[in-house]
Write a structure and sequence with these properties.
202 residues, alpha+beta, Ribosomal Protein S5, domain 2, Alpha-Beta Plaits, 2 domains, 5-stranded antiparallel beta sheet, 5 helices, 38% strand, elongated
Length: 202
């Protein structure tokens, strides 16, 4: 099963006054890549090249963005494949320092920086869980809120009125977890299975 990044990471290397920065980003769909790429370019203006690679399911793409052919894009993509990463993008920023590095050293520097960024990613895996709708007393909601993270539950769409209405999602043990907290069965409406991302403990 492919591993998915949960948060972005960043690595940087300098060599002969050239500066290499590589970002590893979660990328849940291909349509989001352009805005992500443009943001990197806006945040780091004036760089000479912005090579990249991404994998989202069967969609894969790599670009050297003007660097010598094969210097960055394809090695980035090969790294993502080797690490079995999905829904992920690598975007590099390179400021030329005035000295040509030669293709082998250029590629090693790009790839080494990318490996460092990837190695610092927090990773998760997609699991099949359940989503439920809850209508709770304020007392039960306070108990749930305090324990949700440690029990692997994600809370969303919380609204407050005479009761607290919200959605909760988790793995297949969600009903056991809610029962252990004393949540009454009549307060739970099963919304069915849902895919969630669970963090992989290193």
């Amino acid at each position: 099963m492919s591993r998915l990044p949960l948060k972005e990471s960043r690595a940087e290397t300098s060599l002969l006054r050239s500066r290499f920065i590589v970002f590893a980003f979660p990328l849940r769909d291909v349509a989001s890549f352009l805005s992500l790429y443009q943001k990197v370019k806006a945040d780091y203006p004036g760089a000479d090249h912005y090579p990249y690679a991404y994998r989202v399911g069967v969609n894969e793409k790599a670009s050297d963005d003007g660097e010598p052919s094969g210097a960055a894009g394809r090695p980035f993509l090969a790294l993502l494949q080797k690490k079995d990463l999905d829904q992920v993008a690598l975007v590099a920023v390179r400021y030329f320092g005035g000295s040509k590095l030669g293709l082998p050293r250029l590629t090693r520097t790009f790839l080494g920086t990318a490996v460092n960024a990837v190695d610092h990613l927090a990773l998760g895996e997609e699991v099949l869980g359940h989503k439920v709708k809850l209508s709770l007393s304020y007392h039960d909601y306070e108990i749930l809120q305090k324990r949700a993270e440690t029990m692997g539950l994600t809370l969303s769409e919380v609204s407050f009125s005479s009761n607290v209405d919200l959605l909760a999602s988790g793995d297949a043990t969600i009903f056991t977890s809610l029962s252990a907290l004393g949540i009454p069965q009549e307060a739970i409406t099963d919304l069915g299975p849902v895919k969630t991302i669970k963090e992989i403990q290193s």
